[in-house]
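Problem 12. The chain below contains 334 residues. Write out its predicted structure in token notation.
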Amino acid sequence: MSSCGHKIKVVCRVRPFLKSERPDESVGVEPNSVLRVTNPRDTTKDIKFNFDACYGAVVGQDTIYKNDVRPLVETIFNGMSATVFCYGVTGAGKTHTIQGTEAEPGIIPRALEHIFMHQQRDAYDYDIRISYYEIYKEAVYDLLRPRDSVTPLPIREDAHRKIFVAGLSEKKVTSYEQFDALYQRACGNRSTASTKLNNHSSRSHAILTVQVQWKDDVGAGKMWCGKLHLIDLAGSEDNRRTENGKDRMAESSAINRSLFVLGQVVEALNTGSSRIPYRDSKMTRILQDSLGGESLGMMIVNVAPGEAFLQDTHNTLNFATKSREVVNKPVAHE
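Solution.
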């Protein structure tokens, strides 16, 4: 059954200053989910942005998950598809937010713990499967397979016009511990490198999909399927600031191109364009159901504080503001 239109929820998170950075007051969180940012064109003035929620540097991973992500994860047990993606410039804290560390787990480990806890307390027999892949220089690679044995995978459209990655492996998981062992190995296969702005910079977009299937106990029993997509988008980069070499520049060119197309897709949806350029990049093709489609969507926009990032911050927040206007039409999947 279809539900009414659902706008993408946008949550803003400001990371702490690093030890190498000089703290300033150019970015601040104010009451009522307002982010105040110094105008990069006139530093005597401020610009204010409104979002669904805003978090400053002192707010931990647990608060963001409980307040904003957990309710979205719960919807997959109603047969919905839900997507959470982190967006922001390189070094803004996206991977920390979605992946985290052992001491400060991010969205992915918390969501999977949540799913398995739900399974334990529910009467239904849930079948839980995961897939994990990256888009590196506009090629799709399966992260659940050893990197030296994989070839790029094609993106296809099924008979119901749903987008899928052909040949992508899918692993059944029956416990959080089993998932974590698979996930940690897979993270080691992801493309990363050191740049001037980030010692462990993600050079690809990474997508973890969790599919949950079960049969209800009404009559003969209907089969239901919920899906959760957790996405760490690689950050946009200014090669003049990152001082990238030839290889890193080729990577950043592909990243920036896909993020540019993402902006075009959002613009086209908001203006009612007859052509939405989903096919212009692999990332937007995969996000098609999450941008104007049948999935519930949330963007966590990660912001790096400080005057050095002001123009990047301003551009990021403008895009996030436009994304709030994208309307999806969520559908429960039997």
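Discussion. Residues 246-270 form the longest helix (25 residues). Students who got a different answer should revisit the alignment rule from Section 12.3.
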